[in-house]
Amino acid sequence: MLPEQQTANFAKCANGSYDQYYRTLGTNLKNLGRDTPDTFIRLGWEANGNWFAWSIGKNIANYKKCFRHQSQAIKSTAPNVQIDWNMNKESVMGARSVADAYPGDDVVDVVGVDFYSQWPAYPDQAAWDADYMQTQNGGPKGLGTWLAFAKQHGKKLSVPEWGLHNGTGGGGDDAFYIEAMYNFFSTNSSDIAYETYFNLSDPSNPSETGFMIYPAGVNPNASARYQQLWSASPRP
Question: Which of 126, 169, 173, 175 is geometrically suited to a Cys-Cys bond with 119, CB 3.0 to 4.6 A?
Answer without folding.
Answer: 169
